[in-house]
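Before the break, one more example. Copy the sequence into your notebook; we will annotate it together after we see the structure.
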Amino acid sequence: NFKEAQEKKTWRNAMEEEIKSIQKNDTWELASLPNGHKAIGVKWVYKAKKNAKGEIERHKARLVAKGYSQRAGIDYDEVFAPVAPLETVRLIISLAAQNKWRIHQMNIKSAFLNGDMNEEVYIEQPQGFIIKGEEDKVLRLKKVLYGLKQAPRAWNTRINKYFKEKDFIKCPYEHALYIKTQNNDILIACLYVDNLIFTGNNPSMFEKFKMEMIKEFKMTDIGLMSYYLGIEVKQDGDRIFITQESYAKEVLKKFKMDDSNPVCTPMECGTKLSNHEEGESIDPTIFKSLVGSLCYLTCTRPDILYAVGVVSRYM
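Here is what the structure looks like once it is written out:
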């Protein structure tokens, strides 16, 4: 929590970096709360960002609005925003492997802060950064903030507009996939909220694309795609290998099975499962969490698909 974070320099620096990023983006302005309006609360959320090996790379502090207190039709309207499913990511990796292309990755820093605010929304001043002498005032949002109901939608509208201005064509069947062609060259970009991967046959198009993106948004150039949405990617020569080894270990540890013996067959042939009505009742949340974790693991483990499908019938 904030009180604990304030005592550690790493978290204090992370909070200051977040506030600087928000102010640089001209996200809000100090104002008096008008009659009939209610200020939405904010809170700090802390996360230690880890790499594929599970090592802490950096400390991230995010200022988040308490969006659950927003009122539909007053504080927000439409909220839906598309993201690329893992099937699309796998397809791009497959396409790159077949054509011997390289896949690059970039991350948009504080992506949601780029979305424009269309509604009149006020928030409370954040803990640790309340302006002296102006304690009774609130912040009127010009741009969206993380946690707001309309944040994903506003960001998607912003990035979609940018891609169209740069002559990208949005795939009509996959709304997070954009393609740009020049003569015989092609550039494919796939977006998952603030994570961007792109591939194609012309490295010079990559460099131009990177420079334009960095100019428009605050970006982190990760280089070759290596770790994306919990999937480890190894681009070795003409081959691309994907695995979820770290994630699989996390799942085993979470459900206290990290000491279990491994087997080659996920389920015995001819196994018939049924509800055990007289059995001891269990917490259904744990079972749902387990099946959900296994479903995500099937992205790189098609060998367990059938077994996961069977147990998911009993959600």
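The chain has three domains: 2-78+114-147, 86-111+153-242, 245-312. The mean pLDDT is 89. Try to locate both features in your own notes.
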